[in-house]
């Protein structure tokens, strides 16, 4: 899944309403919605940062949710991740790809 914050949190609701009133829209979306999506992607990027800490690190990171294949989501991932992202329809073929990835790192 995607780590969206609790939309029913009073603090988040208030922040989103404030942004909608003071900023309005950003790229055709309400500013509150943009903030909500940014909070989600911040959590995703922080999680990736826990697996890959420096230039010499490597990891297979699986985004197992069809929403990660959406262009608007991919565009919010760091470039060094999005350029290596592989979107597949079924999980099975990923196992040999992951095995190959780690064998190449040995």
Question: How would you describe the overall organization of this protein?
Answer:
The protein has 106 residues and is mainly α. The protein is built from 5 helices and 2 strands, in the order αββαααα. The protein has a two-stranded antiparallel ribbon. β1 and β2 form a beta hairpin. The longest helix has 21 residues. The radius of gyration is 17 Å and the shape is elongated. It starts with 9 loop residues before the first helix and ends with a helix. The mean pLDDT is 94.
Spatial sequence of strands, sheet with the most strands? 1-2
* Radius of gyration using CA atoms only: 17 Å
- Give me the secondary-structure category: mainly alpha
Q: Let me know the average pLDDT.
A: 94
What would you call the shape? elongated
Q: What portion of residues belong to β-strands? A: under 5%
Q: What is the helix fraction of residues, given as a range?
A: 40-55%
Query: Would you report the number of β strands?
Result: 2
How many H/I helical runs?
5
Comma- or semicolon-separated keywords:
single chain; 106 residues; mainly alpha; two-stranded antiparallel sheet; 5 helices; 2 strands
How would you concisely characterize the structure shown here?
The chain is mainly alpha-helical. It has helices spanning 10-22, 31-51, 71-74, 79-82, 94-105; strands at residues 25-26, 29-30.
Q: How would the blueprint of this fold be written?
A:
Elements: H1 10-22, E1 25-26, E2 29-30, H2 31-51, H3 71-74, H4 79-82, H5 94-105
Antiparallel strand pairs: 1-2
Helix pairs in contact: 1-2
